[in-house]
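G., the chain you wanted modeled:
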Amino acid sequence: MSLSIRNQLPGTVTGVTSGEVMAAVRVRLGGGQDITAAITADAVRDLGLTEGSAVRALVKSTEVALATGPVEGISIRNQLPGTITDIVTGGAMAGVRLRVAGGELTAAITKEAAVDLGLAVGLPVVALIKSTEVSLAGA
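Predicted structure as tokens:
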């Protein structure tokens, strides 16, 4: 299946904590980072997710926020450090590509935010992704 979601990171399920309706699925990405996806318990069953399952973590670029350093005191647990490799700006928005360990991410942020943060190629940043914005697909 072809998808418009730009961010597709391969990984392996390292843990599943299921509740009545939702589940938290921990995934070790190819670069060694861990992320969590909050998906429905039905999806866990439908995909047959267990420890060791190969998956792709999918994140829309509009759901990736950027910080210029590590962030503390925030509920967003998925924080992936990376380095900006490209920035394309338009009238209102900017597309920012960054290299993270084991892959690449794209963030779609406002042009104003890119300017205010002083984003430039080569700058280290941290990608912030809420667990509710991470989808999983079988690899």
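The chain is about 10% helix and 55% strand.

Shout if anything looks off.
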